[in-house]
Amino acid sequence: MKKSADSDELSSRKFGLSQLQELEARLLHLEQRDPSSPYYRGSDPVSLPHGMPPRRRFMLGAMAALGTAGAHSAATAATPGAIERTVPPDATKIQGVGVAVDDGGYGGRSQFETEVRTRYATKTTESSWSFTPLQNSMGIVTPSGLHYERHHGGIATIDPTTHQLYVHGMVKQAKKFSIAHIKRYPMLSRLMFMECSGNGLTEWAKPTLKTVQGTHGLTSTSEWVGVPLSTILNEVGLRPGAKWLLAEGGDAAVMTRSIPIEKAMKDCLLAYGQNGEAIRPEQGYPLRLMVPGYEGNMAIKWLRRLEISDTPFMTREETSKYTDLMPDGTALQFSFLMEAKSVITYPSGEMLLQEPGFYEISGLAWSGRGTIKRVEVSVDGGKNWRDAILHDPVLPICHTRFTLPWEWSGQEAILQSRCTDETGYVQPTIKQLADERGLSSVYHLNGIQSWKVAASGEVSNVHHY
Amino acid sequence: MKKSADSDELSSRKFGLSQLQELEARLLHLEQRDPSSPYYRGSDPVSLPHGMPPRRRFMLGAMAALGTAGAHSAATAATPGAIERTVPPDATKIQGVGVAVDDGGYGGRSQFETEVRTRYATKTTESSWSFTPLQNSMGIVTPSGLHYERHHGGIATIDPTTHQLYVHGMVKQAKKFSIAHIKRYPMLSRLMFMECSGNGLTEWAKPTLKTVQGTHGLTSTSEWVGVPLSTILNEVGLRPGAKWLLAEGGDAAVMTRSIPIEKAMKDCLLAYGQNGEAIRPEQGYPLRLMVPGYEGNMAIKWLRRLEISDTPFMTREETSKYTDLMPDGTALQFSFLMEAKSVITYPSGEMLLQEPGFYEISGLAWSGRGTIKRVEVSVDGGKNWRDAILHDPVLPICHTRFTLPWEWSGQEAILQSRCTDETGYVQPTIKQLADERGLSSVYHLNGIQSWKVAASGEVSNVHHY
Questions:
Q1: How is domain B341-462 classified at the architecture level of CATH?
Q2: Between chains, do B97 and A359 touch, taking CB under 8 Å as contact?
C-alpha cells in the first residue's frame, strides 16, 4: 500500500466518520436490494429490525478503529494521551464505543482535556525539565502522564529483560540483580512526593513565571512501589566503615549522586512501580532509586549501579551542580533535604475570577521531614491567617491537599499559604530566605508564594511581605 | 510519513484490513449491478478499467489511514498506551529522548509493558466489561488506563462544556448545573475501591476463569475527586418526605438506579476527577456519581439527571437485573453493599513458580462497610492461618495491600486469604455463600479464593473447603 493524497486528508482532522457512515448506509441500501444478499429485503427495504448484520458490526468496528487511528496522528498534536472519538449531538441516541474497541485495552484521557506538562525553554530538550500543571491538580495523586521531568541527557530507553543493577564496593559479596530478581523481594508501596531542588529557581529575586505550573510545577506525587534498599544492602552485606553509597543512572548523563548509608538503610526504595503499574520511562524505567524527602536529582533514574564507600564520591552533581552558593562565597554541599513548602493552586497565576462571591481556595503542602501538621491561609497579604482544612489522607513525605472557603468581596486581595510540619518547622517568606542565603543560590526555594487577585479578578504572581 | 512492512502487519492484524478489502470488493460488486449507480456496468460487470471511482479511493484512503496510524503508533497496536522508541544497545552512549519531544507533554507507559484490561467475551462490545490485570497490581492505586469497565451501551462521548446535570423532583428548586458550576463547590478527594457486583460471577459453582484478572478483575481503586452530593442536594433543597434519588446516565443505555437519600446525603460524591486529572471517558467523563461501598453499577457514569422521590423508581437495573435470586424463588432487591473480600494476587492462576524457595504472597482486601482490620493467609487450604501484614495507608472503602513472606517447600499447596473488616464481618467460603444463597444468583460473590500450587510450580484456580 502506498500513501495517497486521500490518506493525507484522512489523517488530517477533517476526515469524518460521517463519510464512512455514508458508505455504510449506501452498502446497506445496496445489500437490501440484492436478491443474492442475505440481507435482501425486496424492492422496498426498510430498516433492519434486528439491528446490524455481522458485517455491518465489523464495519462499525473498523470506523471506531479509524477514529483511534486518525486520532493518533492528529491527537498527538491536538490532545496528547487522548483517544479521539466522534462526539454525537446526543450520546443517548447512539451506541457508545465498545469495550477495548479502539484503545487496545489501555485507556486514554478525554480528547477535551488538553493540559500537558510544559517544557522549560532550555537550550536542548535532552537537558531540560517539564512542569506538572498544578493549577488543575485535584487530590494528591499526580497522573503519571503529567509527572514533572528533569533529565540531564534525555529519557533512556532500556530493555528490562537485560537491565541489571550492580552492587559493589565495600560489600561482603558484590552482586548483579536483574529486575525479575529484584521483584522477588518483599514489596513496599508508598504515596510520596518528589521535588526538584530547582523548583521555583526563577522566583528568588522577583516574581518571574506567571502560573503555578511554572513557579511550583517541579513537584509531583505518585504511589511508588519497590523493594526497600536496605533489603538489597543486607543481601550483599555492608563491610565495616561503609558510610556512603554512589547511585548511578544508565542514561546518557550517567547521572551520579552520593547518598549517606544511614539514609539508604532507613527508607530508600528501589522503585519499579508507579501508580499501580511499571514506572514510566521518563521516571527511570525499569528501576529508580527513591530517596524520600531528599532533592529529586538524588532519585537516580534508570538505576544501574550502587557502589559502597567510606567517603562521598564528589561527583559533578554535588560539586559543580546542586550546591547552594552563600553570600560569603562558600557553598552548602549535600543540602539534601526538601524543607516544608506549600502553595495555593487555586486560584493561582493567570486565572480570572469572573465575579465576586464564593471560591474555595485549594492547594498543596509537603515536607521532606515528614507529615504536614498545619496550613494557614491569608487573603490579606499575611495580616491575618486562618487554618485551612487538611484533607485525608495526610501522609508523611507526601503532598497534602488543603482547602479553605473564601468569599471574595471583589476588592484586591493577596493570597498566601504557610505550612508547618511535624518537626515544628514553619515555611518562611521568600525574603527571610533571601536575607539569609543571598541571591546567588538558585536551589531550595521554599518560601511563601503570593498571588494577587486584582479588583478585575485577574490573578498574578507577586512578591509580598 | 512512510509505510513500512511492520505497519501493514499491524493494521492487518489489529483492524482486519483484509476484511475491509473484502467489504470494498463487495460494495464495488453491488454498485456495478445497481442501475441507479454511476458505476453501473450492466449485467456482467468487469473490473473497472480506469481504476477506482472516487468513493472507492476514499475507501482505500481510509485503509491507508489505518496503515499510517499503525505506523505512527506501532506501539498502539503492539503496546497500547505506549510511545514506541528505539532501544539502543547501551543507553549511556546515545542522547536520550528529549523532554516533550515525542509525547506532546503527556507521557505514556513503556513499550515493554503489555498488560491490558481484557474484555469478557460478551455478544456485543457495547454491553460488555473488561477486567483489571490484578496479577500485576502493586500498591493500591489502579492506573486509570487499566481501571475495569462495565458498560451497558458503550462509552458515551460527551462535550463537557455543554453537559448539564439536572436535579429535580421533590426539591424546593429544580436546577441545572454545568460542569464548571459544579467545580465551584468545595472539593473532596478520596481513595476508594469500586467493584462490580458481578465480580466473580463465573465462580459460584466451580472454578472457571483461570487468572485473578478473570476471577476478581472487576474491582479497581482510584483517587476520586468531586463535590459531595449532599452539597448539591442542599443547594436544591429536599422537600419533606424525600426518600429516594434516581441517578440517570447520559449514555445509550440511559443507565438508571435508585439510591436511598440517606446514603446520598452521607457520602456520595459527584466525581469529576480520577487520579489527579479529569475522570476518564470510560469511567463516566465528565461526571460520575460515586456511591462508596455500594455495587459499581450504582455509580452512574456520564451522569445527567437526579430525580428526588419518596419511593424507589423500580428501574430495569433493580428489577430484572442486579437482584439476587434465592433458592426459594424470591429475589433480594436493593442488595447494594459490597461485603468484605480479599484475594491473593501473587502467586495466582496461570503463574509458574520456577523453583522452591522464598516468595512473598501479596494481595488485596476491601470492604464496602469501611476499613479492613485483618487479613489471614493460609498455605495449606485453610488448616492453619497466619496474619498478613497490612500496608499503609489502610483506608476505609479502599483496597488494602497485604503481604506475607512464604517459603515454598516444592510440595503442593493451597493458598487462601480471609479478611475481616471493622464491623467484625469475616469473609466466608464460597461454599458457605452457595449453601445460603443457592446457585441461581450470580452477583455478590465474596467468598474465599483458593489457588493451588502444584508440585510443578503451576498455579491454578480451584475450589477448596
A1: Sandwich (2.60)
A2: no
